[in-house]
Specification:
binds adenosine-5'-diphosphate; single chain; 3 domains; binds magnesium ion; Rossmann fold; six-stranded parallel beta sheet; alpha/beta; binds ligand TZD
Length: 582
Protein backbone atom coordinates (compact mmCIF):
# COMPACT_ATOMS: atom_id res chain seq x y z
CA UNK A 1 0.00 0.00 0.00
CA UNK A 2 1.27 3.36 -0.78
CA UNK A 3 0.22 6.54 0.88
CA UNK A 4 -0.20 9.48 -1.25
CA UNK A 5 1.44 12.37 0.54
CA UNK A 6 -0.17 15.65 -0.02
CA UNK A 7 2.33 17.97 -1.52
CA UNK A 8 2.50 21.27 0.34
CA UNK A 9 2.36 24.19 -1.97
CA UNK A 10 5.57 26.19 -1.85
CA UNK A 11 4.85 29.27 0.18
CA UNK A 12 7.43 32.04 0.20
CA UNK A 13 5.98 33.46 3.43
CA UNK A 14 6.69 30.26 5.39
CA UNK A 15 10.46 30.65 5.13
CA UNK A 16 10.46 34.23 6.27
CA UNK A 17 8.16 33.45 9.18
CA UNK A 18 10.49 30.75 10.45
CA UNK A 19 12.84 32.45 12.91
CA UNK A 20 16.53 31.98 12.49
CA UNK A 21 17.86 30.78 15.82
CA UNK A 22 21.18 30.70 17.54
CA UNK A 23 22.09 28.99 20.82
CA UNK A 24 24.39 29.19 23.82
CA UNK A 25 27.15 27.26 22.05
CA UNK A 26 27.29 29.65 19.14
CA UNK A 27 26.81 32.80 21.19
CA UNK A 28 29.77 31.88 23.38
CA UNK A 29 31.96 31.22 20.36
CA UNK A 30 30.81 34.46 18.72
CA UNK A 31 31.41 36.44 21.92
CA UNK A 32 34.96 35.14 22.29
CA UNK A 33 35.84 35.62 18.63
CA UNK A 34 34.37 39.10 18.59
CA UNK A 35 36.90 39.96 21.29
CA UNK A 36 39.75 38.42 19.36
CA UNK A 37 40.05 35.45 21.70
CA UNK A 38 40.71 32.64 19.28
CA UNK A 39 42.58 29.94 21.20
CA UNK A 40 41.21 27.61 23.86
CA UNK A 41 43.32 25.32 26.05
CA UNK A 42 41.28 22.61 27.72
CA UNK A 43 40.08 19.06 28.26
CA UNK A 44 36.78 17.90 26.69
CA UNK A 45 33.89 16.09 28.37
CA UNK A 46 30.36 16.67 29.68
CA UNK A 47 29.00 19.32 29.17
CA UNK A 48 31.52 21.09 26.96
CA UNK A 49 32.54 18.45 24.40
CA UNK A 50 30.35 19.83 21.66
CA UNK A 51 31.37 23.36 22.52
CA UNK A 52 35.00 22.45 21.78
CA UNK A 53 34.01 20.78 18.51
CA UNK A 54 31.93 23.73 17.39
CA UNK A 55 34.63 26.19 18.42
CA UNK A 56 37.09 24.33 16.22
CA UNK A 57 34.54 24.16 13.40
CA UNK A 58 34.14 27.92 13.70
CA UNK A 59 37.84 28.59 13.25
CA UNK A 60 39.03 28.77 16.83
CA UNK A 61 42.19 26.89 17.82
CA UNK A 62 41.17 24.29 20.39
CA UNK A 63 44.09 22.54 22.06
CA UNK A 64 43.26 19.49 24.13
CA UNK A 65 45.44 18.53 27.06
CA UNK A 66 45.75 15.40 29.17
CA UNK A 67 45.04 17.24 32.45
CA UNK A 68 43.30 20.55 33.10
CA UNK A 69 46.03 21.99 35.31
CA UNK A 70 48.37 22.12 32.35
CA UNK A 71 45.72 23.54 30.05
CA UNK A 72 45.18 26.21 32.72
CA UNK A 73 48.89 26.92 33.01
CA UNK A 74 49.04 27.25 29.23
CA UNK A 75 46.15 29.72 29.30
CA UNK A 76 47.86 31.76 32.02
CA UNK A 77 51.10 31.95 30.07
CA UNK A 78 49.18 32.84 26.91
CA UNK A 79 47.73 35.72 28.93
CA UNK A 80 51.15 36.79 30.15
CA UNK A 81 52.66 36.71 26.66
CA UNK A 82 49.83 38.42 24.79
CA UNK A 83 48.17 40.74 27.33
CA UNK A 84 44.82 39.18 26.37
CA UNK A 85 43.16 36.71 28.73
CA UNK A 86 44.16 33.13 27.99
CA UNK A 87 41.21 30.74 27.88
CA UNK A 88 40.99 27.42 29.68
CA UNK A 89 37.97 25.15 29.21
CA UNK A 90 37.13 22.40 31.66
CA UNK A 91 34.32 20.01 32.54
CA UNK A 92 32.44 20.23 35.82
CA UNK A 93 33.61 19.42 39.36
CA UNK A 94 36.84 17.38 39.01
CA UNK A 95 37.92 19.03 35.77
CA UNK A 96 37.10 22.40 37.26
CA UNK A 97 39.12 21.62 40.40
CA UNK A 98 42.07 20.47 38.27
CA UNK A 99 41.96 23.80 36.44
CA UNK A 100 41.54 25.77 39.65
CA UNK A 101 45.19 25.43 40.71
CA UNK A 102 46.20 27.11 37.49
CA UNK A 103 43.58 29.83 37.97
CA UNK A 104 44.83 30.55 41.48
CA UNK A 105 48.43 30.49 40.29
CA UNK A 106 47.60 32.90 37.44
CA UNK A 107 45.95 35.27 39.90
CA UNK A 108 48.92 35.10 42.25
CA UNK A 109 51.24 35.91 39.37
CA UNK A 110 49.03 38.67 37.92
CA UNK A 111 48.50 36.80 34.63
CA UNK A 112 45.16 37.34 32.90
CA UNK A 113 43.18 34.19 32.16
CA UNK A 114 39.59 33.01 32.11
CA UNK A 115 38.63 29.56 33.34
CA UNK A 116 35.46 28.60 31.48
CA UNK A 117 33.95 25.65 33.20
CA UNK A 118 30.89 23.63 32.41
CA UNK A 119 28.78 22.93 35.48
CA UNK A 120 25.85 20.73 36.41
CA UNK A 121 22.16 21.62 36.69
CA UNK A 122 21.74 24.53 39.09
CA UNK A 123 18.47 23.28 40.55
CA UNK A 124 20.02 19.93 41.46
CA UNK A 125 23.32 21.37 42.63
CA UNK A 126 21.65 23.91 44.89
CA UNK A 127 19.41 21.30 46.47
CA UNK A 128 22.41 18.94 46.68
CA UNK A 129 20.46 16.17 45.05
CA UNK A 130 23.45 14.39 43.60
CA UNK A 131 23.84 15.43 39.97
CA UNK A 132 26.58 14.10 37.74
CA UNK A 133 29.75 15.91 38.86
CA UNK A 134 27.80 18.07 41.26
CA UNK A 135 29.62 20.99 42.84
CA UNK A 136 28.94 24.61 43.69
CA UNK A 137 31.86 25.69 41.54
CA UNK A 138 31.22 29.42 41.65
CA UNK A 139 31.45 29.52 45.44
CA UNK A 140 34.66 27.51 45.42
CA UNK A 141 36.31 29.59 42.71
CA UNK A 142 35.50 32.97 44.27
CA UNK A 143 38.23 33.24 46.90
CA UNK A 144 40.87 31.92 44.50
CA UNK A 145 40.56 34.35 41.64
CA UNK A 146 40.06 38.00 40.87
CA UNK A 147 36.40 37.68 39.87
CA UNK A 148 33.88 34.90 39.34
CA UNK A 149 30.68 35.04 37.29
CA UNK A 150 27.91 32.67 36.26
CA UNK A 151 25.85 32.98 33.10
CA UNK A 152 22.35 31.55 33.32
CA UNK A 153 20.76 32.91 30.16
CA UNK A 154 22.03 32.70 26.61
CA UNK A 155 21.22 36.36 26.01
CA UNK A 156 23.64 37.24 28.86
CA UNK A 157 26.62 35.48 27.27
CA UNK A 158 27.81 38.64 25.53
CA UNK A 159 27.84 40.71 28.69
CA UNK A 160 29.20 37.84 30.80
CA UNK A 161 32.19 37.36 28.51
CA UNK A 162 32.75 41.13 28.44
CA UNK A 163 32.81 41.27 32.25
CA UNK A 164 35.22 38.37 32.38
CA UNK A 165 37.61 39.96 29.89
CA UNK A 166 37.60 43.32 31.60
CA UNK A 167 38.06 41.81 35.04
CA UNK A 168 41.01 39.73 33.82
CA UNK A 169 43.03 42.45 32.12
CA UNK A 170 42.12 45.80 33.67
CA UNK A 171 44.00 47.07 36.71
CA UNK A 172 46.15 44.30 38.19
CA UNK A 173 45.64 41.38 35.82
CA UNK A 174 44.49 38.03 37.16
CA UNK A 175 42.35 34.96 36.81
CA UNK A 176 38.59 35.05 36.25
CA UNK A 177 36.15 32.20 36.61
CA UNK A 178 33.18 31.89 34.28
CA UNK A 179 30.59 29.30 35.30
CA UNK A 180 28.62 27.82 32.42
CA UNK A 181 25.78 25.51 33.50
CA UNK A 182 25.05 22.73 31.02
CA UNK A 183 21.59 24.05 30.26
CA UNK A 184 23.01 27.33 29.00
CA UNK A 185 24.57 25.81 25.90
CA UNK A 186 21.35 24.49 24.44
CA UNK A 187 19.22 27.58 25.10
CA UNK A 188 18.05 29.13 21.87
CA UNK A 189 17.65 32.80 21.08
CA UNK A 190 16.49 34.51 17.95
CA UNK A 191 19.65 35.01 15.93
CA UNK A 192 19.39 38.76 15.44
CA UNK A 193 18.70 39.32 19.15
CA UNK A 194 21.63 37.07 19.96
CA UNK A 195 23.91 39.07 17.69
CA UNK A 196 22.76 42.29 19.34
CA UNK A 197 23.55 40.88 22.77
CA UNK A 198 27.24 40.45 21.99
CA UNK A 199 29.68 42.98 23.39
CA UNK A 200 33.03 43.98 21.95
CA UNK A 201 34.99 45.28 24.91
CA UNK A 202 36.29 48.75 24.15
CA UNK A 203 39.75 49.43 25.59
CA UNK A 204 39.82 46.39 27.92
CA UNK A 205 42.79 47.64 29.96
CA UNK A 206 42.47 51.44 29.96
CA UNK A 207 45.56 53.48 30.73
CA UNK A 208 45.72 54.55 34.34
CA UNK A 209 47.66 57.77 34.57
CA UNK A 210 49.71 58.42 37.68
CA UNK A 211 48.95 61.57 39.66
CA UNK A 212 51.39 64.35 38.67
CA UNK A 213 52.33 65.02 42.31
CA UNK A 214 53.25 61.36 42.77
CA UNK A 215 55.63 61.67 39.84
CA UNK A 216 57.17 64.87 41.24
CA UNK A 217 57.65 63.15 44.61
CA UNK A 218 59.29 60.15 42.98
CA UNK A 219 61.69 62.35 41.03
CA UNK A 220 62.57 64.26 44.22
CA UNK A 221 63.38 61.04 46.04
CA UNK A 222 65.45 59.82 43.09
CA UNK A 223 67.36 63.09 42.87
CA UNK A 224 68.37 62.72 46.52
CA UNK A 225 69.81 59.24 45.89
CA UNK A 226 73.49 58.48 46.19
CA UNK A 227 73.12 54.76 45.53
CA UNK A 228 70.02 54.22 43.43
CA UNK A 229 68.78 50.90 42.09
CA UNK A 230 65.92 49.90 39.79
CA UNK A 231 64.27 46.50 40.32
CA UNK A 232 62.32 45.31 37.31
CA UNK A 233 59.63 42.68 37.75
CA UNK A 234 57.45 40.59 35.50
CA UNK A 235 54.67 43.20 35.71
CA UNK A 236 56.97 45.44 33.68
CA UNK A 237 57.61 42.65 31.18
CA UNK A 238 53.86 41.99 30.95
CA UNK A 239 53.15 45.66 30.20
CA UNK A 240 55.01 45.42 26.87
CA UNK A 241 56.54 48.87 27.36
CA UNK A 242 59.94 47.53 26.37
CA UNK A 243 61.36 50.53 24.53
CA UNK A 244 60.06 53.05 27.07
CA UNK A 245 61.52 51.14 29.99
CA UNK A 246 64.86 50.73 28.24
CA UNK A 247 64.96 54.45 27.50
CA UNK A 248 64.08 55.39 31.09
CA UNK A 249 66.66 53.06 32.61
CA UNK A 250 69.37 54.18 30.21
CA UNK A 251 68.67 57.89 30.65
CA UNK A 252 68.62 57.49 34.42
CA UNK A 253 72.00 55.74 34.40
CA UNK A 254 70.80 53.68 37.39
CA UNK A 255 71.88 50.03 37.78
CA UNK A 256 68.99 47.59 37.35
CA UNK A 257 68.20 44.20 38.79
CA UNK A 258 65.70 42.06 36.88
CA UNK A 259 63.45 39.58 38.68
CA UNK A 260 63.64 36.20 37.02
CA UNK A 261 60.83 36.55 34.47
CA UNK A 262 61.88 40.14 33.73
CA UNK A 263 65.28 38.96 32.56
CA UNK A 264 65.83 40.07 29.00
CA UNK A 265 63.55 43.11 29.20
CA UNK A 266 66.92 44.77 29.11
CA UNK A 267 69.63 42.31 28.09
CA UNK A 268 71.48 40.57 30.92
CA UNK A 269 74.76 41.75 29.39
CA UNK A 270 73.60 45.39 29.44
CA UNK A 271 76.25 47.72 30.91
CA UNK A 272 73.83 48.76 33.69
CA UNK A 273 72.86 45.22 34.70
CA UNK A 274 73.46 44.53 38.38
CA UNK A 275 72.22 40.91 38.25
CA UNK A 276 75.57 39.48 39.22
CA UNK A 277 75.93 41.96 42.09
CA UNK A 278 72.52 41.21 43.62
CA UNK A 279 73.60 40.94 47.25
CA UNK A 280 75.60 44.13 47.08
CA UNK A 281 72.91 46.28 45.48
CA UNK A 282 70.16 45.06 47.79
CA UNK A 283 72.26 45.73 50.83
CA UNK A 284 73.95 48.97 49.86
CA UNK A 285 71.44 50.89 47.76
CA UNK A 286 69.71 53.91 49.33
CA UNK A 287 66.83 54.46 46.89
CA UNK A 288 65.12 51.56 45.18
CA UNK A 289 62.69 51.95 42.31
CA UNK A 290 60.31 48.99 42.11
CA UNK A 291 59.00 48.67 38.57
CA UNK A 292 56.24 46.05 38.30
CA UNK A 293 57.68 43.89 41.10
CA UNK A 294 56.41 43.15 44.60
CA UNK A 295 58.35 43.18 47.85
CA UNK A 296 57.30 39.60 48.60
CA UNK A 297 59.41 36.63 49.72
CA UNK A 298 61.40 36.73 46.49
CA UNK A 299 62.86 40.03 47.71
CA UNK A 300 62.96 39.12 51.41
CA UNK A 301 59.97 41.44 51.92
CA UNK A 302 62.18 44.51 51.48
CA UNK A 303 63.72 44.19 54.93
CA UNK A 304 66.08 42.14 57.07
CA UNK A 305 69.71 41.26 56.64
CA UNK A 306 69.64 41.14 52.84
CA UNK A 307 68.55 44.79 52.77
CA UNK A 308 71.25 46.23 55.02
CA UNK A 309 70.72 48.53 57.96
CA UNK A 310 67.08 49.17 58.96
CA UNK A 311 65.88 52.51 57.65
CA UNK A 312 68.66 52.71 55.08
CA UNK A 313 66.28 52.57 52.10
CA UNK A 314 63.72 54.70 50.43
CA UNK A 315 61.39 53.00 47.98
CA UNK A 316 59.78 54.42 44.88
CA UNK A 317 57.10 51.89 44.00
CA UNK A 318 55.45 51.87 40.59
CA UNK A 319 52.45 49.57 40.34
CA UNK A 320 48.93 49.55 38.99
CA UNK A 321 47.57 48.17 42.28
CA UNK A 322 47.30 50.87 44.97
CA UNK A 323 47.06 48.30 47.76
CA UNK A 324 50.49 46.98 46.89
CA UNK A 325 52.01 50.15 48.39
CA UNK A 326 53.35 49.72 51.95
CA UNK A 327 52.56 46.00 51.79
CA UNK A 328 55.81 45.11 53.55
CA UNK A 329 57.74 48.31 54.22
CA UNK A 330 57.05 52.01 54.06
CA UNK A 331 57.00 53.37 50.54
CA UNK A 332 58.44 56.89 50.30
CA UNK A 333 57.11 57.55 46.82
CA UNK A 334 54.12 55.51 45.69
CA UNK A 335 53.37 55.88 41.99
CA UNK A 336 50.09 54.23 41.08
CA UNK A 337 49.29 53.73 37.45
CA UNK A 338 50.01 51.56 34.48
CA UNK A 339 53.70 51.04 33.80
CA UNK A 340 53.61 52.66 30.39
CA UNK A 341 52.04 55.87 31.66
CA UNK A 342 54.17 55.94 34.80
CA UNK A 343 57.47 55.44 33.02
CA UNK A 344 56.52 57.95 30.38
CA UNK A 345 55.68 60.50 33.08
CA UNK A 346 58.90 59.82 34.99
CA UNK A 347 60.93 60.10 31.82
CA UNK A 348 59.34 63.47 31.03
CA UNK A 349 59.82 64.72 34.58
CA UNK A 350 63.50 63.82 34.62
CA UNK A 351 64.17 66.86 32.46
CA UNK A 352 67.24 67.48 30.36
CA UNK A 353 69.60 68.19 33.23
CA UNK A 354 69.34 64.74 34.79
CA UNK A 355 72.49 63.86 36.72
CA UNK A 356 73.95 60.38 36.48
CA UNK A 357 74.30 58.48 39.77
CA UNK A 358 77.59 59.06 41.66
CA UNK A 359 80.44 57.29 39.96
CA UNK A 360 81.75 55.62 43.14
CA UNK A 361 78.40 53.79 43.45
CA UNK A 362 78.45 52.72 39.83
CA UNK A 363 82.01 51.47 39.98
CA UNK A 364 81.35 49.57 43.24
CA UNK A 365 78.38 47.83 41.60
CA UNK A 366 79.98 47.11 38.26
CA UNK A 367 83.32 45.98 39.73
CA UNK A 368 81.53 43.47 41.91
CA UNK A 369 79.44 42.35 38.98
CA UNK A 370 82.44 41.91 36.72
CA UNK A 371 84.26 39.85 39.35
CA UNK A 372 81.23 37.60 39.82
CA UNK A 373 80.64 37.28 36.09
CA UNK A 374 84.26 36.24 35.60
CA UNK A 375 83.89 33.58 38.31
CA UNK A 376 80.69 32.27 36.78
CA UNK A 377 82.15 32.25 33.27
CA UNK A 378 84.95 30.06 34.53
CA UNK A 379 82.55 27.73 36.31
CA UNK A 380 80.28 27.25 33.31
CA UNK A 381 83.28 26.46 31.12
CA UNK A 382 83.59 23.17 33.00
CA UNK A 383 83.33 19.88 31.18
CA UNK A 384 82.73 17.32 33.90
CA UNK A 385 81.33 13.83 33.39
CA UNK A 386 79.00 13.10 35.02
CA UNK A 387 77.82 16.64 34.42
CA UNK A 388 77.17 18.97 37.33
CA UNK A 389 74.63 21.77 36.96
CA UNK A 390 77.19 24.27 35.71
CA UNK A 391 78.58 21.97 33.04
CA UNK A 392 75.14 21.26 31.62
CA UNK A 393 73.97 24.85 31.94
CA UNK A 394 77.16 26.13 30.32
CA UNK A 395 76.08 24.30 27.17
CA UNK A 396 72.54 25.69 27.32
CA UNK A 397 73.77 29.21 28.07
CA UNK A 398 75.72 29.26 24.85
CA UNK A 399 72.77 27.94 22.86
CA UNK A 400 70.41 30.61 24.21
CA UNK A 401 73.01 33.27 23.48
CA UNK A 402 73.21 32.08 19.89
CA UNK A 403 69.43 31.68 19.58
CA UNK A 404 67.95 34.67 21.44
CA UNK A 405 64.44 34.11 20.05
CA UNK A 406 64.14 30.81 21.90
CA UNK A 407 61.47 30.69 24.59
CA UNK A 408 62.99 29.34 27.78
CA UNK A 409 60.81 27.45 30.25
CA UNK A 410 62.44 26.55 33.55
CA UNK A 411 61.40 24.70 36.70
CA UNK A 412 62.96 22.60 39.44
CA UNK A 413 64.98 23.56 42.49
CA UNK A 414 68.69 23.50 41.65
CA UNK A 415 67.76 23.25 37.99
CA UNK A 416 65.83 26.50 38.38
CA UNK A 417 68.18 28.45 40.60
CA UNK A 418 71.33 27.71 38.66
CA UNK A 419 69.68 28.22 35.27
CA UNK A 420 68.32 31.59 36.36
CA UNK A 421 71.78 32.91 37.10
CA UNK A 422 73.70 31.08 34.37
CA UNK A 423 71.47 31.55 31.31
CA UNK A 424 71.50 35.13 30.09
CA UNK A 425 68.42 36.45 28.37
CA UNK A 426 68.53 39.21 25.80
CA UNK A 427 64.91 39.64 24.71
CA UNK A 428 61.77 40.46 26.71
CA UNK A 429 59.24 37.80 27.79
CA UNK A 430 61.40 34.89 26.72
CA UNK A 431 61.79 33.34 30.17
CA UNK A 432 58.89 31.56 31.86
CA UNK A 433 59.37 29.93 35.21
CA UNK A 434 57.79 28.89 38.52
CA UNK A 435 56.79 32.48 39.31
CA UNK A 436 55.52 33.89 42.57
CA UNK A 437 54.58 30.58 44.20
CA UNK A 438 57.63 28.64 43.10
CA UNK A 439 55.19 26.07 41.79
CA UNK A 440 56.26 22.81 40.18
CA UNK A 441 54.18 21.68 37.23
CA UNK A 442 54.09 24.76 35.01
CA UNK A 443 56.58 23.23 32.60
CA UNK A 444 54.70 21.50 29.81
CA UNK A 445 51.68 23.82 29.90
CA UNK A 446 54.00 26.82 29.62
CA UNK A 447 55.95 25.13 26.84
CA UNK A 448 52.79 24.50 24.81
CA UNK A 449 51.59 28.09 25.23
CA UNK A 450 55.01 29.53 24.46
CA UNK A 451 55.15 27.57 21.20
CA UNK A 452 51.53 28.24 20.23
CA UNK A 453 51.46 31.94 21.08
CA UNK A 454 54.87 32.93 19.69
CA UNK A 455 55.66 30.34 17.03
CA UNK A 456 59.24 30.39 18.34
CA UNK A 457 61.20 27.32 19.36
CA UNK A 458 60.95 26.42 23.03
CA UNK A 459 63.62 25.03 25.33
CA UNK A 460 62.21 23.64 28.59
CA UNK A 461 64.87 23.06 31.22
CA UNK A 462 63.32 20.77 33.81
CA UNK A 463 64.37 19.15 37.06
CA UNK A 464 63.47 15.46 36.95
CA UNK A 465 60.97 15.98 39.76
CA UNK A 466 59.55 19.16 38.23
CA UNK A 467 59.04 17.41 34.88
CA UNK A 468 57.00 14.66 36.52
CA UNK A 469 54.23 17.09 37.48
CA UNK A 470 53.25 17.72 33.86
CA UNK A 471 55.16 15.01 32.00
CA UNK A 472 52.15 13.41 30.34
CA UNK A 473 51.67 16.57 28.29
CA UNK A 474 54.57 15.50 26.08
CA UNK A 475 51.86 13.59 24.22
CA UNK A 476 50.12 16.95 23.70
CA UNK A 477 53.38 18.43 22.44
CA UNK A 478 53.83 15.54 20.00
CA UNK A 479 50.19 15.57 18.93
CA UNK A 480 50.37 19.21 17.88
CA UNK A 481 53.92 18.74 16.62
CA UNK A 482 55.19 21.74 18.57
CA UNK A 483 58.81 22.89 18.33
CA UNK A 484 59.57 22.06 21.95
CA UNK A 485 62.85 20.64 23.21
CA UNK A 486 62.70 19.40 26.80
CA UNK A 487 65.93 18.86 28.69
CA UNK A 488 65.51 16.90 31.91
CA UNK A 489 68.27 17.45 34.44
CA UNK A 490 68.17 13.94 35.79
CA UNK A 491 69.85 13.73 39.19
CA UNK A 492 67.65 10.86 40.36
CA UNK A 493 65.46 12.92 42.60
CA UNK A 494 64.32 16.04 44.39
CA UNK A 495 67.38 18.24 45.01
CA UNK A 496 69.68 15.21 44.55
CA UNK A 497 69.52 11.46 44.35
CA UNK A 498 71.61 10.39 47.28
CA UNK A 499 69.32 10.48 50.32
CA UNK A 500 68.94 7.16 52.13
CA UNK A 501 66.27 5.75 54.39
CA UNK A 502 67.86 6.08 57.85
CA UNK A 503 66.01 2.99 59.13
CA UNK A 504 67.60 0.81 56.49
CA UNK A 505 64.05 -0.23 55.55
CA UNK A 506 62.90 -1.29 52.12
CA UNK A 507 61.37 2.06 51.07
CA UNK A 508 63.80 4.54 49.55
CA UNK A 509 64.10 8.05 51.00
CA UNK A 510 61.16 10.36 50.12
CA UNK A 511 63.31 12.57 47.89
CA UNK A 512 64.75 9.94 45.55
CA UNK A 513 63.45 8.34 42.37
CA UNK A 514 64.20 5.22 40.35
CA UNK A 515 67.87 5.38 39.40
CA UNK A 516 68.79 5.94 35.77
CA UNK A 517 65.21 6.48 34.63
CA UNK A 518 65.01 6.53 30.83
CA UNK A 519 62.75 9.56 30.40
CA UNK A 520 63.66 9.82 26.70
CA UNK A 521 61.76 6.60 26.06
CA UNK A 522 58.54 8.31 27.13
CA UNK A 523 58.99 10.70 24.21
CA UNK A 524 59.64 7.85 21.81
CA UNK A 525 56.34 6.30 22.87
CA UNK A 526 54.62 9.31 21.30
CA UNK A 527 56.83 9.25 18.19
CA UNK A 528 58.86 12.23 19.34
CA UNK A 529 62.65 12.25 19.47
CA UNK A 530 64.26 10.91 22.65
CA UNK A 531 67.98 11.36 23.41
CA UNK A 532 70.06 10.15 26.34
CA UNK A 533 73.14 12.28 27.05
CA UNK A 534 75.89 12.13 29.62
CA UNK A 535 78.32 14.84 28.48
CA UNK A 536 78.35 18.51 27.65
CA UNK A 537 79.10 17.89 23.99
CA UNK A 538 76.32 15.38 23.61
CA UNK A 539 73.91 17.77 25.29
CA UNK A 540 74.90 20.67 23.01
CA UNK A 541 74.56 18.59 19.89
CA UNK A 542 71.21 17.17 20.93
CA UNK A 543 69.69 20.57 21.79
CA UNK A 544 70.98 22.25 18.65
CA UNK A 545 69.63 19.41 16.52
CA UNK A 546 66.25 19.63 18.24
CA UNK A 547 65.98 23.40 17.84
CA UNK A 548 67.05 23.19 14.18
CA UNK A 549 64.58 20.43 13.39
CA UNK A 550 61.65 21.88 15.35
CA UNK A 551 60.71 18.29 16.21
CA UNK A 552 59.33 17.52 19.67
CA UNK A 553 62.38 16.24 21.53
CA UNK A 554 63.12 15.08 25.05
CA UNK A 555 66.73 14.97 26.18
CA UNK A 556 67.49 12.97 29.30
CA UNK A 557 70.60 14.73 30.62
CA UNK A 558 72.31 12.74 33.33
CA UNK A 559 73.48 14.99 36.16
CA UNK A 560 75.71 13.91 39.04
CA UNK A 561 73.26 12.78 41.71
CA UNK A 562 75.42 14.45 44.37
CA UNK A 563 75.43 17.84 42.68
CA UNK A 564 72.35 19.56 44.11
CA UNK A 565 71.71 21.29 47.41
CA UNK A 566 68.59 21.10 49.60
CA UNK A 567 65.84 23.35 48.19
CA UNK A 568 68.29 24.94 45.76
CA UNK A 569 68.93 28.48 46.96
CA UNK A 570 65.95 28.80 49.28
CA UNK A 571 67.07 26.27 51.84
CA UNK A 572 66.59 28.95 54.51
CA UNK A 573 62.81 28.62 54.03
CA UNK A 574 62.89 24.89 54.70
CA UNK A 575 62.48 24.14 58.41
CA UNK A 576 64.78 21.35 59.55
CA UNK A 577 64.61 19.44 62.79
CA UNK A 578 67.37 20.21 65.27
CA UNK A 579 66.17 17.63 67.78
CA UNK A 580 68.55 14.71 67.90
CA UNK A 581 66.06 11.91 67.42
CA UNK A 582 64.71 10.60 64.15
P1 LIG B 1 58.16 39.61 40.13
O1 LIG B 1 57.76 38.23 40.56
O2 LIG B 1 58.82 39.64 38.81
O3 LIG B 1 58.88 40.33 41.21
P2 LIG B 1 55.46 40.36 40.75
O4 LIG B 1 54.54 39.38 40.12
O5 LIG B 1 55.76 40.18 42.19
O6 LIG B 1 56.80 40.43 39.89
O7 LIG B 1 54.89 41.82 40.58
C1 LIG B 1 54.26 42.24 39.42
C2 LIG B 1 53.56 43.53 39.74
O8 LIG B 1 53.30 44.20 38.53
C3 LIG B 1 52.23 43.34 40.46
O9 LIG B 1 52.23 44.03 41.68
C4 LIG B 1 51.21 43.93 39.47
O10 LIG B 1 50.18 44.65 40.12
C5 LIG B 1 52.06 44.85 38.65
N1 LIG B 1 51.57 45.08 37.29
C6 LIG B 1 51.14 44.18 36.40
N2 LIG B 1 50.82 44.78 35.24
C7 LIG B 1 51.05 46.09 35.41
C8 LIG B 1 50.91 47.23 34.57
N3 LIG B 1 50.48 47.13 33.31
N4 LIG B 1 51.24 48.43 35.08
C9 LIG B 1 51.68 48.54 36.36
N5 LIG B 1 51.84 47.50 37.18
C10 LIG B 1 51.53 46.29 36.72
N1 LIG C 1 54.68 20.72 44.79
C1 LIG C 1 54.45 21.85 44.10
C2 LIG C 1 53.19 22.01 43.31
N2 LIG C 1 55.35 22.84 44.07
C3 LIG C 1 56.48 22.72 44.78
N3 LIG C 1 57.34 23.75 44.74
C4 LIG C 1 56.78 21.54 45.50
C5 LIG C 1 55.83 20.56 45.48
C6 LIG C 1 58.04 21.32 46.33
N4 LIG C 1 59.23 21.30 45.45
C7 LIG C 1 60.03 22.39 45.28
O1 LIG C 1 59.88 23.50 45.79
S1 LIG C 1 61.26 22.05 44.19
C8 LIG C 1 60.75 20.46 43.95
C9 LIG C 1 59.63 20.20 44.72
C10 LIG C 1 58.94 18.88 44.72
C11 LIG C 1 61.45 19.55 42.99
C12 LIG C 1 62.95 19.71 42.95
O2 LIG C 1 63.54 18.64 42.30
P1 LIG C 1 63.93 18.71 40.78
O3 LIG C 1 65.12 19.77 40.79
O4 LIG C 1 64.39 17.39 40.37
O5 LIG C 1 62.84 19.30 39.99
P2 LIG C 1 66.64 19.57 41.28
O6 LIG C 1 67.44 20.06 40.15
O7 LIG C 1 66.86 18.10 41.54
O8 LIG C 1 66.87 20.37 42.50
MG1 LIG D 1 66.21 16.51 40.45
Amino acid sequence: MSVELEERPANADDASQEQELTDGFHLLIDALKLNDLNTIYGVPGIPITDFGRLAQANGMRVLSFRHEQHAGNAAAIAGYLTGKPGLCLTVSAPGFLNGLTALANATTNCFPMILLSGSSEREIVDLQQGDYEEMDQLAIAKPLCKAAFRILHAEDIGIGVARAIRAAVSGRPGGVYLDLPAALFGQTVEASLGAQSLVKVVDPAPRQLPAPDSIARAIDVLKGAKKPLIIIGKGAAYAQADELIKRFVERSGIPFLPMSMAKGLLPDNHPQSASAARSLVLKESDVVVMLGARLNWLLSHGKGKAWGAPGSKKFVHIDIEPREMDSNVEIAAPVVGDITSCVEALDNAMGNDWKQPPSDWLSAVYDKRDTNVAKLTQKVGSDLTPMDFHTALGALRQIIEERPETMLVNEGANTLDFARSVINMSKPRKRIDVGTWGIMGIGMGAAVAAAVETGNPVLAVEGDSAFGFSGMEIETICRYNLPVCIVIFNNNGIYRGTDVNPTGGEDVAPTVFVKDTRYEMMMEAFHGVGVYVTSRDELSTAVNTALDSGKPTLINAIIDENAGTESGRIGNLNPQSVVKKT
